[in-house]
Amino acid sequence: MNQCFFCGDTERPLTEEHVWPVWVSKLLRGKYGSDHFVHIRSTGNETTGLWRAPVLKVTTKRVCDECNNDWLSAFENDVIKPIAGPLILGDPIDIIKPADQEKLAAWGVQDGAAP
């Protein structure tokens, strides 16, 4: 039995979920004069890995394939990208509606509540 972060106990396989979505990396790459991201792995005070990559590749295997590929993917693509994209890029925005603030908070925290 697997434990999905969102739906709990499940027989479904767990899949890799990006902590920082690839689309965020693509938005940020080149924005500040860099074509890469620096990854640092450490244990305690010791650096155990240091490398460059074109995307932020930080993943976790805590989400089942159904949650990851169905509602979570749709939520991120259809709801979050249009709200977060301009914020990430620093585009001028007059106001973020309370309903959109709630969606961003749910996405940022991903507390297990399906939208």
Write the layout of secondary structure elements.
Blueprint: E1 2-4, E2 8-10, E3 14-18, H1 22-28, E4 37-43, E5 46-53, E6 59-64, H2 65-89, H3 98-109
Antiparallel strand pairs: 1-2, 3-6, 4-5
Helix pairs in contact: 2-3
Class per helix and strand makeup:
alpha+beta
Principal-axes geometry comes out as flat
User: Helix count, per DSSP?
Assistant: 3
How is the largest sheet built, in terms of strand order?
A: 1-2
- Characterize the main sheet: 2 strands, antiparallel
The unreliable regions are: 111-115
Question: Which key features would you list for this structure?
Answer:
two-stranded antiparallel ribbon, 115 residues, disordered C terminus, two-stranded antiparallel sheet, alpha+beta
Question: What features would you describe in this structure?
Answer:
This protein is α+β, with helices and mostly antiparallel strands and 115 residues long. It has helices spanning 22-28, 65-89, 98-109; strands spanning 2-4, 8-10, 14-18, 37-43, 46-53, 59-64. It has one domain (2-109). Strand 4 and strand 5 (46-53) form a beta hairpin. The longest helix is centred in the last third of the chain and has 25 residues, at 65-89.
